[in-house]
Structure formats: C-alpha cells, structure tokens
Amino acid sequence: MAFDTSNANDEVMHEINMTPLVDVMLVLLVVFMITLPVVQQAVKVELPRVASTPNHALTDSVQLTVDAQGHYFLADKNVPADLLEDSLRTAAEKAPQLQLYIRGDKKVPYEQVAWAMTAAQRAGLSRIGFVTESRQP
Does residue 129 belong to any structural domain of this protein? Predict the structure, then answer.
C-alpha cells in the first residue's frame, strides 16, 4: 500500500484543536459530579431550632450524632450503644481537653441523648455542648 505524498496542501495548521480539551473537561466534570456526594456523606439529623449565638468548634472537638432512630455516630462513624463509652474514652485519651458536641435529632427520645451524656461523663469528658440550628425570626 502506498501513501500519496503529493498532497498540495502541506501547510501547517495554525489553529488549536479544541475537541480533546473539551473532552477532557467534560470527563473531569462528570468525575467530580459523581464523587462529590460520596465525599460529603454525613448523618442526616433534624436539629431543634433555638435562639442562640453561634459557637465556633474548637480544634480539639468531636461530634456525637444521635439520629431519629437512636443510633450513635461518633465523627460520622456508626458506634453501637454498648461501645459508645469505650469509643469516647479512646477519643478523650488522645486529646485531654476534648470538647464533645452532641447533635441530637429533635425526634429522638431525650433518654437516648441523656444516655450519651452519661457515657461521655463516664469516659472522662466534662466539656459537652449541644448543636442546634438558629431559629429564624
């Protein structure tokens, strides 16, 4: 098979071919759209609304979430109720001045939140706060 080298149009193309660039950008856009919801996984709770001033989290802090079904999540990791005290004790040993923020769903029975507070106190945590949403006037 012979190639025809007698092409009269042997000029250099002076334009940038945008098709590969657009293809790469579309692939990156799809990848980010798929991975973003996976990265932002958090326990969904409906926090009670109260009139309060916002408090910014300290660096030595951890969040304990109690969802509407009464399941416990320490730093977004599911923790069985019988292992909650041990998990909190382990976290308290890593940071002696650890601040615990409890995010309790407003539909969860108060007993579940009180049990979490008792487990935190037994684990040696004395700085406990509650996370709420601000009430809109």
Answer: yes
Q: What is the pLDDT of residues 77-116, one digit of tens each?
A: 999 989 999 999 988 888 778 888 988 888 888 888 888 9
Contact 23, 31 (CB under 8 A): no
Domain count, the chain: 1
In a domain, 43, yes or no: no
pTM of model > 0.70: no
Does residue 3 form part of some domain?
no
Question: Residue 61's domain is classified under what CATH number?
Answer: 3.30.420.270
Report the candidate in 67, 118, 125 with the shortest Cα–Cα distance to residue 91.
Answer: 125
